Predict the 3D structure of the following.
Amino acid sequence: MIRKLTSLCLIALLALAMFAPLALADEAAPVAEGSHSGRGIIVVGLGLAIGLAALGTGIGQGIGLQGATEGVARNPGASGKITTTLIIGLAMIESLAIYALVVVLIILFVNPLKL
């Protein structure tokens, strides 16, 4: 029950982070050249996006480390293979956070809306 509630809360926060900039956008008012109205909303949305990406990858790394530790505790002879697989898996998970950071930086600095 608690897991379902936590998942529901995380999905609601993700939806809020994704759609808040759209809901608060000022499309009716013309934006003057060089004006930065609305830039703060985009920055907050991007901060939430990278925060959620870091949260997800941190949880994934923790679960992977937990599994590897339990595996080594049960079978110490297989620690070499488990460690190698763990390091490769953690590198793959960490690359997801780096990809999220790259996407956030691209949206922040190469914004086609010129907000």
The chain has a mean pLDDT of 80. Helices lie at 2-23, 39-74, 79-109. The longest helix spans residues 39-74.
